[in-house]
Design a protein that fits this description.
mainly beta
């Protein structure tokens, strides 16, 4: 039912080890309009959702149970695009966006391995084995941090 999934992801990484903000654009095609379709997300909050150009007004009804439920009335056959502004928490157990403060150099480090079942901990996505997808990445981080990515993302100084 869902195919051709891709993501454009922008992250604003924040010092202190609590949380970070992001914006994801999820693009996908549907060969059938489902009764229920959701993106997985175990984040702190979702601030804004736009499905195919239409803003979702009642976010509390849509973001619940670690899922962002996409209203079927806003979905269409063929290409679909979902924009989501979100806040997620850093983790310290390596299952998501890991935050670590080194006691030796007193610096903060953030990373993710984006393991197959951990991606939904740091951004809204179809986090299931049959829906692998490429993503592009834009990272905004403190100027003292060095950002490295294997995605071929955009790194700004």
């Amino acid at each position: 039912m869902v195919a051709n999934v891709s993501y454009k992801l922008a992250l604003a990484l924040i010092t202190g080890g609590e949380s970070f903000h992001g914006h994801v654009i999820a693009s996908f095609t549907l060969n059938k309009i489902p009764k229920g379709l959701f993106l997985d997300f175990k984040g702190r909050q979702v601030m804004n959702i736009v499905v195919n150009g239409s803003s979702v007004q009642e976010i509390g009804d849509v973001f619940k149970g670690h899922r962002v439920h996409l209203p079927p009335s806003l979905l269409k056959l063929g290409g679909n695009t979902v924009h989501i502004d979100f806040e997620a928490e850093y983790v310290t157990d390596c299952q998501g966006m890991q935050w670590f403060k080194d006691e030796e150099d007193k610096l903060e480090y953030v990373y993710t391995n984006s393991e197959p079942d951990h991606s939904h901990l740091w951004f809204p996505c179809f986090d299931q084995p049959d829906l692998k997808a490429p993503y592009s990445l834009l990272v905004l981080a403190p100027t003292s941090w060095v950002v490295v990515s294997t995605t071929g993302g955009i790194i700004l100084d």
